Amino acid sequence: MITKVQKWGNSQGLRVPKRLLEDAEVKMGDEVQVSVHGRKIVIEPLTKIRGKYQLKKLVSMIPKHTKVKEMEWGEPKGKEIW
After folding, report:
1. Rounded to the nearest 10 degrees, how much is the dihedral formed by the CA atoms of 49, 54, 55, 61?
2. Domain range enclosing 25
3. Hey, which bits of 9-58 come out as E strands?
4. What is the pLDDT of residue 25?
5. What 3-state class would DSSP assign to 22?
6. Could you tell me the sign of the dihedral formed by the alpha carbons of 8, 32, 19, 50, in that order?
7. Contact 10, 18 (CB under 8 A)
8. How many domains does the chain have?
9. Reduced to 3 states, what is the DSSP secondary structure of residue 79?
10. 54: phi then psi, degrees, rounded to nearest 5
11. Per-residue pLDDT of the chain (82 residues; tens, 9 = 90+)
12. Could you tell me if residue 47 is inside a domain?
């Protein structure tokens, strides 16, 4: 694919075809990591939960001796299905 760097306000930008974003599983509003390797610009999607946390990092923070148990959350307050 060939595209052109264009002026957008005081910045420059690239248009990325929808099909290319779909192939990379990137959606509108997703955060991406942009880096330079030599003379290449690399754009990588970030894997996050609800846009704030990375699952692998959260799981790595669980103490090794933690025992999992069921918790009582009370009666449904909205349209939850229990």
Report:
1. -130
2. 6-60
3. 11-13, 32-37, 40-45
4. 86
5. helix
6. negative
7. no
8. 1
9. coil
10. -100, 125
11. 888 999 999 999 999 999 999 998 888 888 899 999 999 999 998 875 566 778 888 889 999 999 888 988 888 888 877 6
12. yes
Please tell me the distance from the alpha carbon of residue 54 to that of residue 2, in angstroms, as a whole number: 33
Read off the pTM.
0.49
Amino acid at 12: Q
**58: helix, strand or coil:** helix
The Cα angle at residue 50 between residues 26 and 53, in degrees rounded to 5: 100
Residue type, 41: I
Rounded distance between C-alpha atoms, residue 3 and residue 24, angstroms: 17
pLDDT of 78 reads: 83
The contacts found for 43-51 with CB under 8 angstroms, 24 or more apart, are none
Domain assignment present for residue 78? The answer is no
